[in-house]
Design goal:
Distance between the termini: 49 Å
Shape: globular
Number of helices: 7
Number of strands: 0
Helix content: over 70%
Length: about 150
């Protein structure tokens, strides 16, 4: 019980650092948020939101795509239907130019029950654009991202 409560305290502390970092632009706040989210997840591995938020910070705020992908992959290994991890991993794939993989994750995300209409709409529009890109790439030869 104590570990669960302490994990939530670390998570809230990480959220504060993230918000401060987003407001101020100070990278040290994002690094502190990563540390607190890591502590929260290590203290209570069932608190997957901590690992998700750490991955999102790695991707969006810090540009650390490998670390973000590690977090999203691990979360999806535990639960392949964890929609926030699917959506964010798709964004990392897209950022890296792996359009086929991004499209696959977005299609998996869109096949799940809708949890947030705004994100669902964004994912749907992005999937439509990626379908066009993947089709153009397949018409011009082998995928640029190494997929066949």
């Amino acid at each position: 019980m104590y570990r669960t409560i302490l994990a939530r305290v670390y998570y809230m502390w990480g959220s504060l650092h993230r918000n401060f970092g987003n407001q101020s632009g100070f990278s040290r706040e994002h690094r502190s948020a990563v540390l607190r989210f890591t502590q929260a997840y290590e203290m209570d591995p069932s608190l997957r939101k901590a690992r998700l938020d750490r991955g999102i910070i790695f991707y969006r705020e810090m540009g650390m795509l490998d670390e973000a992908m590690d977090d999203f992959d691990a979360l999806l290994e535990e639960d392949p239907t964890y929609s926030p991890a699917l959506l964010n991993r798709a964004m990392v794939y897209q950022e890296r130019g792996f359009y086929t993989e991004a499209l696959s994750d977005l299609e998996a995300y869109l096949a799940l029950p809708m949890e947030d209409e705004e994100y669902w709409q964004i994912a749907s529009r992005t999937a439509d654009l990626l379908k066009e890109i993947v089709a153009e790439m397949s018409n011009s030869g082998p995928d640029q991202n190494g997929s066949e």
